Amino acid sequence: MLRxxxxxxxxxxxxxxxxxxxAAAASEPLPPACQWIPQDALALLELRRPEAILEKLLxxxxxxxxxxxxxxxxQAASAGFQIFLGLLGxxxxxxxxxxxxxxxxxxxxxxxxxxxxxxxxxxxxxxRDSRTLEVLHDMSLGLARAEATRRGEPDRVxxxxxxxxxxxxLGPEAAAFDREHDALEAAAAGSGSADALRAWWLRxxxxxxxxxxxxxxxxxxxxxxxxxxRVKEAGLMLRHVRLLRxxxxxxxxxxxxxxxxxxxxxxxxxxxxxxxxxPSEGFPRALLERFTVxxxxxxxxxxxxxxxxxxxxxxxxxxxxxxEREHDPGSKRLLGREGKLGGEDVVRILLEEPATARRVVRxxxxxxxxxxxxxxxxxxxxxxxxxxxxxxxLKRDGLLDRVLVMTFSEFGRTVQENGRRGTDHGAxxxxxxxxxxxxxxxxxxxxSLTDLDAGGLRHHTDFRRVYATVxxxxxxxxxxxxxxxxxxxxxxxxxxxxx
Length: 499
Fold this sequence. Notes:
Blueprint: E1 3-6, E2 10-16, E3 41-47, H1 51-57, H2 60-67, H3 70-76, H4 79-95, H5 99-106, E4 111-116, E5 121-127, H6 130-150, E6 157-162, E7 165-170, H7 172-190, H8 194-207, H9 211-224, H10 228-231, H11 234-247, H12 252-259, H13 263-268, H14 282-291, H15 300-309, E8 313-316, E9 319-322, E10 332-334, E11 337-339, H16 343-351, H17 354-368, H18 377-396, E12 405-408, E13 431-434, E14 452-453, E15 456-457, H19 463-475, H20 479-482
Parallel strand pairs: 1-7, 2-5
Antiparallel strand pairs: 1-2, 3-4, 4-5, 6-7, 8-9, 10-11, 12-13, 14-15
């Protein structure tokens, strides 16, 4: 297998003589490292026989000289250097050998560095040991994903198949893809053609490196049902789709609150002008009937009072404007709750209804798992009632912010066995956290349906990071001391809890 690693300004090709691209026959030799150097490279630095240089660099006397220098001593005291040493120790533990042996293995066949006119660089290491190569690949990919997740940009790291080689990118693939398709969609919207915008979104769905994101954006588009035929402005539709994409894998409350202020949605539901004297019932009715609790669980009085809560909102020249003088400040009653409610209050009340959770879960099940099998209503009711009773007890006793619930499955599921065909041993499984201080949304990058581990989804988060999060952020313990003192991102807490 050939590993191609791409970073914003660096592409790293790890090649080994004992490895071969998946598309090549076993008898075919791996292409020489020099064949990966771009033809437009401005400068090349090639190291063909690294043994002598490595012996000089790794000589104990040379190492002692470097360690005694003021620059080294200054760097050795930094937190970053300590993390580096921890990662080095982790690499040695994975390989069962010291880092000097690993370095000799990685550079056994030489190294080539190329510089291009656009500022990019390409480093080719001609390794001779598959084990060292695999460990380095997995560690570097894991670190890149962890860092991207820590910065709130999990999409910046992608893993995919390309030309028979396993490849991953940090930045350019995802960023360039988004830039290209954002520009194409904007151009289509600028032309005023909803058909052109629709065509570019379909193209994006087909080519995206993150199919789950687009699949969920399409799910919410279908659920909210904002039609270009009713909106009649491609620019508003583009903003609507981007809103859905931005929140597709996040908090449903955040998404619903944004949809309630979305110009395209309000126009499509004849709620572009909701006056105090004439409240618009289009959006409030859809909110109750289609987006949350569903038919038969509200009255016409609920619709009227919800409409009063949303008064004062107008869509003017494609933008949402709020006018306090047009808002009805009086008391409203919704599903038994009474007060001087506004639009955001209405959304929060509806989200607290168990019926809303059941409808969303049922629809997600049909969308993601099985279009034919209906999820057990009794099971959903039992689970919903149990969780609701548990959370209500915590709220009543003032303990919600002091309790953290963690649930996970020992088993994953292979992609091909998705649906109701039993449970098998996959390589990864979801883990859920619940509690008053848990941030909503999905932590970690989107799973790939093509870059698999023995047919199952690859895990992106080491389970020890979850334990480290609970120990460090919840219980106040030193996670490294409890979990063995390992350093680096393996034990870096996840950003899933509020302070």
